[in-house]
Amino acid sequence: MKRIQLSRDALYRGPLILVNALHGVAFDRPETLTPVADNVLLEKQASSLLNELMREIGGWDSIVPVSGWRSMAEQQAIWDDCLRESGQEYTRTYVALPGHSEHQTGLAIDLGLRGEHIDFICPDFPDTGICGQFRKLAAKYGFILRYPPGKEAVTGIGCEPWHFRYVGIPHARIMEENRQTLEEYTEYIRQFDSPVHPCCIRIGGRAIYVSYVPAAPEETVIEVNETAPFHISGNNVDGFVLTQWA
Q: Is 34 exposed, middle or buried (CB count within 10 Å of its CB: 0-12, 13-18, 19+)?
């Protein structure tokens, strides 16, 4: 077994960090950003898998990346402009508070159907056609619909059919199967608080185990099987999620 030592800062980084009105972004800019298209940036792994998904469906011919990573200043400007033009109720429904936006993580992207006019705040992304194909394959590539209908009370944000969030594999698959938001998944995975009794999912005939490790006050030590691939992500709340491939 290999011992992994994680500083307190690691709690606030990784594809499974929960960002919402209660849990803000703890850094100014992600360490690895890469262009998806034009001036739209995403975290490197998220960008790579998004492009793989788009290649499978020929998506970039009809789908436009509307908004990816945003700086704190950009999020503040969007908030202020929307507040001025559309009022408080609309703004709080569709725009996250500056410092609490998933777009500041580099893990979220707004997508729109290509057209003559694209609404920057609420782009058109229907359930049918090429957009429907994207939805069906999103979890396979580690993406979830972050703000689904019927979950407004959980997420604190109105339904946004265009807003997708990279959480990684197998987490997107588990969330899809359980119809969970990231808030619900963060809570759900806490019950698997031992690598001896993890959450298990099989993808392509291979077992993947997911478990939760609470964060220590200063440094957290996690033991992993170094003979198999693994990944550790902070949850931005109180612990880490360990993913191990059998």
A: middle
Note the pTM of the prediction, 2 decimals: 0.96
CB 104 within 8 A of CB 97: no
Eight-state DSSP code of residue 216: P
Amino acid letter for position 83: L
CA-CA distance, 233 to 241, in Å (whole number)? 5
Backbone angles phi and psi of 201, in degrees to 5: -140, 145
Report d(CA 115, CA 71) in Å as an integer.
26
Q: Tokens 């006019």 — which residue?
A: 117
Tell the residue number behind the tokens 């119809």, with chain if given: 179
Structural tokens at position 19: 């960002």
Query: Which residue out of 160, 176, 184, 218 is catalytically annotated?
Result: 160
- Cβ burial of 178 (10 Å; 0-12, 13-18, 19+) is exposed
Tens-digit pLDDT string for the chain (246 aa): 899 999 999 999 999 999 999 999 999 899 899 999 878 999 999 999 999 999 999 999 999 999 999 999 999 999 999 999 999 999 999 999 999 999 999 999 999 999 999 999 999 999 999 999 999 999 999 999 999 999 999 999 999 999 999 999 999 999 999 999 999 999 999 999 977 789 999 998 899 999 999 999 999 999 998 889 999 999 999 999 999 998
229 vs 237: CA distance, rounded Å? 25
- In the residue annotation, 74 being an active-site residue is answered as no
